[in-house]
Write a structure and sequence with these properties.
175 residues, Prolyl-tRNA editing enzyme YbaK/EbsC (Cys-tRNA(Pro) deacylase), 23% helix, alpha+beta, YbaK protein
């Protein structure tokens, strides 16, 4: 148990998972994925960590980025510790081979992922999206990430993130 979260096996609580997250977890079948119910009003990282006594370096954010190349929009997810920020205009832009990159508009991210704002997670994303992971996430014994809905959080072993579909470990992803 991390902080004062009360966790249980994620698939035992589908009410705390967005539909694409539940489907992905059923297909992924990895041990150690737990879920906790939280107050939806406290889903944003700083408020969540303060209310549930979870350190920022135990919380990982999943941000969705979008860039265009030759008229085609390319999306990716970046998973990084809450103590860091993604190098979107440097490392991520070059990695995705796009001229300009920015955070995806929230309405687009919500519509394309089937997840709620404040709950987007790297589990259950569209199959064609790469999941770029800062190596520090993998070093954490355990991290808290979104569950696809604002009223839930997943807790996973940090190293398990490397096993996500389309996961790519990217040095320098976060600063």
């Amino acid at each position: 148990m991390m902080g004062n979260l009360k966790t249980e096996p994620a698939l035992d609580r589908p009410d705390l998972l967005a539909a694409p997250v539940e489907a992905a977890l059923k297909g992924w079948n990895r041990p150690g994925v737990e879920v906790a119910a939280i107050d939806a009003g406290l889903a944003d990282t700083a408020a969540f960590c303060a209310a549930y006594d979870v350190r920022l370096d135990e919380s990982a954010n999943c941000v969705i980025v979008a860039g265009k190349r030759e008229g085609v929009t390319r999306y990716a997810a970046c998973l990084l510790l809450a103590t860091t920020r993604a190098d979107v205009n440097g490392v991520v832009r070059k990695h995705l081979n796009v001229r300009k990159l920015s955070f995806a508009p929230m309405d687009d991210a919500v519509a394309l992922t089937g997840m709620e704002h404040g709950g987007i997670t790297p589990i259950g994303l569209p199959a064609e999206w790469p999941v770029l992971i800062d190596p520090r996430v993998l070093e954490a014994a355990s991290v808290v990430i979104g569950s696809g809905v604002r009223h839930g959080k997943l807790q996973i072993p940090g190293a398990l993130a490397a096993e996500l579909p389309r996961a790519e470990i990217v040095e320098g992803l976060a600063r």
